[in-house]
């Protein structure tokens, strides 16, 4: 009964200067950013646009007015709630180099997102070493560096995943011990 569950991604967990990504059925298909003024969420149309916002979100916070036909007076495009799973990116991550595509896939147990890149020739690269080797073998990508690729996994917001997958605080609760001092 959980089919169609969606996932959201956002570049900064701090209370301002956020933007976000939304995902469906294990991979990202909708992106969103949060207004730094009214805190409403706005849908971002493309991954490229999202990465552009995320790339400079500290220096240039996102506002509703950055989008055509939007202002802080217009109701939010979507709301942060558990009808979707949200994941949050660090701010100022590198933009994916032109021609490459970054993919994030959520594990079935909601524990982690796995990042990989698809090259302009359709090759799937899963590690920095694979990126380095590919760039070395393809000198036409001169100017693109390994540091333009980022495999870090966004933070999964625990309060927005299905309850059965939420991490239990068993380690904390286990500490409770009977007091039998007498
Ligand atoms: Zn706003």
UniProtKB/TrEMBL annotation:
Keywords: DNA-binding, Metal-binding, Nucleus, Transcription, Transcription regulation, Zinc, Zinc-finger
SMART domains linked to this entry: MBD (SM00391)
UniProt cross-references to Pfam families, sorted A to Z: MBD, zf-CW
UniProt subcellular location: Nucleus
GO molecular function (one): zinc ion binding
Superkingdom of origin: Eukaryota
Coiled-coil residue windows: none
Chief location bin: nucleus
Keyword Transcription: yes
Disordered as annotated region, ranges: 1-20
Keyword Aminoacyl-tRNA synthetase found: no
Domain called MBD: residue spans: 86-156
GO cellular component annotations of the record: nucleus
PROSITE patterns given in the database record: MBD, ZF_CW
Residues covered by the CW-type domain: 25-80
Gene3D superfamilies in alphabetical order: 3.30.40.100, Methyl-cpg-binding Protein 2, Chain A (3.30.890.10)
The protein, known as: Uncharacterized protein
């Amino acid at each position: 009964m959980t089919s169609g569950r969606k996932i959201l991604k956002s570049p900064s967990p701090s209370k301002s200067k956020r933007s976000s990504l939304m995902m469906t059925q294990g991979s990202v298909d909708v992106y969103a950013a949060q207004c730094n003024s009214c805190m409403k969420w706005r849908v971002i149309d493309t991954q490229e646009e999202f990465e552009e916002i995320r790339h400079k979100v500290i220096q240039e916070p996102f506002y509703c007015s950055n989008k055509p036909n939007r202002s802080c007076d217009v109701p939010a495009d979507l709301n942060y709630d558990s009808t979707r799973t949200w994941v949050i990116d660090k701010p100022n991550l590198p933009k994916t180099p032109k021609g490459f595509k970054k993919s994030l896939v959520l594990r079935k147990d909601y524990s982690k997102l796995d990042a990989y890149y698809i090259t302009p020739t359709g090759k799937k690269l899963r590690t920095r070493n694979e990126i380095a080797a590919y760039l070395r073998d393809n000198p036409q990508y001169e100017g693109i560096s390994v540091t333009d690729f980022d495999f870090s996994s966004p933070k999964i917001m625990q309060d927005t995943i299905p309850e059965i997958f939420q991490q239990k605080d068993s380690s904390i609760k286990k500490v409770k011990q009977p007091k039998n001092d007498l």
